Amino acid sequence: MRIRTLFLFLVVIVLVVASSCKRSPDAAATPYEDPTTTTACMACPDWAANANIYEVNIRQDTPEGTFKAFAAHLPRLKQMGVDVLWLMPVFPISEAKRKGTLGSYYAVADYTAVNPNYGTIEEFKALVDTIHQLGMKVILDWVPNHTGWDHPGSPSIRIIIPRIHRVT
Questions:
Q1: How many domains does the chain contain in total?
Q2: How far apart are CA 96 and CA 84, in angstroms?
Q3: Residue 119 placed within a domain
Q4: In a domain, 26, yes or no
Q5: pTM of the predicted model, to two decimals?
Q6: 25 pLDDT exceeds 60?
Q7: Is residue 1 included in any domain, yes or no?
Q8: DSSP string over 27-63
Q9: Has residue 5 been placed in a domain?
Q10: pLDDT band, very low/low/confident/very high, at 101 (cuts 50, 70, 90)
Q11: Beta bridge partners of 139
Q12: Bridge partners of residue 167, in order along the sequence
């Protein structure tokens, strides 16, 4: 008898709790939200809303690890439907307290230059120009709070970007 009473008591509790959960009358009528219309995406440019973004690690993408060698792959990436190339840091890597022989891309020594192992600033600009000619955009992975130990300071973004290349 005791078990039966306990069981009935638990059933009543479950029914009370279940019936107290109120469902919003329009919950079933709420349409699927298109991710391109969410608040987070309203702040981004129109071209980015449905863009196919391809992350590029210049050092690892080709055996040579250079801007010139990577440029040869641009037609293939365009054919794949890539809209935006997101370049991991292309800046010189700090020497002080370097991790391993190559160092971390994010231990930036100078935000106004490119890593000489990848090529020259002119080769970088040529790469960006070619990407733009193919109708793709470029995003630079720029993380100002990840400077290297021997970085001279934190220059302002107004100084950095125009010296490398005007981004459009």
A1: 1
A2: 33
A3: yes
A4: no
A5: 0.64
A6: no
A7: no
A8: TTTPPPPPGGGSHHHHTS-GGGTT--EEEE-HHHHSS
A9: no
A10: confident
A11: 86
A12: none
